[in-house]
Design goal:
By secondary structure, the protein is of the alpha/beta class. It has 13 helices and 20 strands. The chain is globular.
Length: 415
């Protein structure tokens, strides 16, 4: 990575944040002719508290990115292929759903599990190889000012100047705060805690990720994700509003559950926690805040694009990076950086994601009812047609929309 010590450096565009959203933006600007810098406050590739799950959406974006990103990712190690999800209802019954009805082991896996520092490092390496864009690590944005048509980003010892900024700097986005006046919407905010364990028993033979919808966490859940080398990523997600009245901290809650829950505790009798429990926040979508303004766009977690049901944000972050790159190209081609012009970005994000986000939010709300969750899992285990329908919801928005239709549950009960 590159660290500048000069006083002021000029760029056309600065991308703040070198995670999946920022790197995808940079890679999507390959061949644009723009002078772009990618800056990040961390010493890259930095550690990231995350579930480490890479969905089919992530794979699809990698296929679209230049430089054989998808094929090169398939050679990346260590990572673990995952072919489905095990949903465990509050009553303890579980439902195994493959990501696709096609279960051939010959085809590439629909999803993978890979530590974020490895995946982010892979994307950063791709940016370095495919573009001339410098990646400036350990640059913490302290202040953003504007003089005439130019932004000035001040760090500890250096200053960068640019015409346009893309904020891909996460939930506590400095760009969103300083340029958009944003603050965290705690009504749509989730808290997560994660630790790595060695020796967790009973992991799925096809590396299905596990989501345990425990009553004390609803509509959140506890997860167990099988990683490479026998390691498991174990964590929980809970709404901020619910955590405010919880009697314990996130880390205490996680340890209490895995050591006291009758279904989970036997699996952790010989497990060893590796390192400490990390915590993070997730800004759940859809959010009504504007994610563009005079000379700037927000992408990924900075734009609150985390799926409210699954908590997955990497796929949407990468999609937003693609859209942000397209919008930036148009802005420089037309020399138009006005809020009205860049407001088209908000429209494109909504068109791409809003329907799915709204459906996911309704599904999340339905998950607050344990009896309904228990019923659906029991019925799906007994009915092949229902089970196959749930598998289709991963890739079919019309199927997902059915999950918030009261008539769907009437059919489950009486059909």
């Amino acid at each position: 990575m590159v660290t500048f010590s000069m006083q002021t450096t000029d760029f056309d565009l600065i991308i703040v944040g070198a995670g999946p959203a920022g790197c995808t933006t940079a890679l999507s600007l390959t061949g644009s002719g723009l002078n772009v810098a990618l800056v990040d406050k961390a010493d890259l590739p930095g550690k990231k508290v995350c579930g480490d799950a890479l969905s089919g959406t992530v794979m699809n974006v990698l296929r679209r990115l230049p430089g054989n990103c998808y094929d090169d990712f398939l050679s990346l190690e260590p990572k673990t292929p995952s072919r489905g999800i095990r949903f465990t209802a509050p009553c303890g019954d579980f439902l195994d759903l493959p990501f696709t009805l096609e279960t051939s082991e010959e085809t590439p896996s629909p999803g993978y599990l890979c530590e974020r520092n490895i995946f982010d490092g892979f994307l950063q390496m791709k940016v370095s190889k495919l573009t001339s864009f410098p990646i400036i690590s350990k640059f913490k944005v302290k202040q953003i000012s504007k003089e005439g048509n130019y932004f000035f980003l001040k760090g500890e010892n250096e200053e960068l100047r640019c015409r346009m900024i893309i904020g891909a700097d996460g939930v506590h986005s400095v760009v969103g705060k300083l340029l958009g006046g944003h603050s965290i919407n705690y009504r749509q905010y989730c808290l997560g805690a994660r630790a790595y364990f060695n020796g967790v028993k009973g992991l799925h033979p096809k590396n299905y990720i596990e989501l345990h919808f425990l009553e004390e966490l609803l509509p959140g859940y506890l997860w167990i994700f099988p990683m490479a080398n026998g390691i498991a990523n174990v964590g929980l997600g809970i709404l901020y509003e619910k955590m405010k009245v919880a009697p314990a901290s996130l880390s205490v809650m996680l340890q209490q559950i895995i050591h006291s829950n009758p279904l989970l505790s036997p699996r952790f009798t010989d497990a060893e926690m590796l390192g400490n429990i990390g915590a993070h926040g997730l800004p759940l979508g859809p959010d009504k805040k504007k994610i563009s303004g005079e000379g700037f766009l927000l992408a990924g977690d900075a734009a609150a694009l985390v799926d409210p049901f699954s908590g997955e944000g990497i796929g949407n972050a990468m999609i937003s990076g693609e859209i942000a790159a397209g919008m930036a190209r148009e802005a420089f081609e037309t020399n138009n950086f006005s809020p009205s012009f860049l407001g088209e970005y908000d429209k494109r994000i909504r068109k791409k994601m809003e329907r799915e986000m709204k459906t996911s939010r309704k599904i999340q709300q339905l998950c607050s009812y344990p009896s309904l969750f228990n019923l659906v899992v029991k019925k799906a285990n007994k009915n092949k047609e229902i089970k196959e329908f749930f598998t289709k919801m991963y890739t079919n928005q019309d199927a997902r929309d059915q999950l918030v239709n009261p008539g769907f549950y009437f059919k489950i009960l009486f059909g």
